[in-house]
Write a structure and sequence with these properties.
single chain, alpha/beta, 4-stranded parallel beta sheet, 10 helices
């Protein structure tokens, strides 16, 4: 079975959520038949949102080092358990020298599967992810338009995001995420992509009136499929 290397720690709770979803999706019926993960959970990676905005150092070198280390440890494919860090996907893939399974493409595949008639996609994401345009480009390639929150709700989203990364997960944080989801649905979104790995920690599919796509789960399923294809 192929071994999956995980670039994680951005933040740690999201990485644990990814790992849990891998094993929830893993069809192995005995312990020895389940996916092997090699995980680098590194919370010291520089802030991706600040870097995209030109206000902080690039996380690219740290991500590249993680990719090289995971490949050297035996990983046969890489995943990045962070949406915004996909802005540095090329650096990660080049450094690792092994396949990189894209969370962005996995999420788009999930949209196509769960909401095949959708043409307008609501996107909730960190500011860096929005500014980097990783989802917008992927949506445009599939002929989809995008709806994103306005300035006020996005600011509240970012404040909640940093509180969650610090370990605070309560009703205020959930309310900030819900407000963004309602805004994009009001703007015509037929499906909402939770384009930040902290969102699924607080929002679940039944919370919205349209499908809520969890890229963490989509990537976990893609990783499991890739791993078992090598068995």
């Amino acid at each position: 079975m192929r071994v999956i290397g995980v670039l994680g720690g951005m933040g740690p709770a999201a990485t644990l959520d990814f790992m849990a979803k891998v094993y929830a999706a893993d069809p192995g019926d005995v312990e020895q038949g389940r996916v092997r993960l090699i995980v680098d959970c590194n919370p010291a990676v520089d802030d991706r949102n600040l870097a995209v905005g030109g206000e902080g150092p690039s996380p690219g070198p740290a991500l590249a080092d993680m990719a090289r280390g995971l490949a050297a440890a035996g990983a046969q494919a890489l995943v990045i358990a962070c949406n915004t860090a996909h802005a540095w996907a090329d650096e990660v893939g080049e450094a690792g020298g092994i396949p990189l399974l894209s969370m962005i493409e996995a999420a788009c595949d999930a949209v196509a599967a769960q909401a095949p008639s959708a043409t307008r996609i609501g996107l909730l994401a960190g500011q860096g992810c929005l500014d980097a345009g990783v989802y917008q480009r992927a949506f445009a390639a599939r002929g989809w338009s995008v709806a994103i929150p306005g300035v006020q709700n996005q600011a509240a989203f970012m404040a909640a995001l940093y509180r969650i990364k610090a370990g605070v997960m309560g009703e205020a944080e959930r309310a900030a995420f819900l407000a963004c989801a309602r805004e994009v649905m009001d703007a015509g979104a037929q499906v909402v992509v939770a384009g930040c790995t902290e969102i699924p920690l607080l929002l679940k599919p039944g919370d919205l009136d349209v499908p809520l796509i969890d890229p963490t789960e989509a990537l976990a399923r893609a990783a499991v499929a890739f791993a078992h294809a090598g068995a």
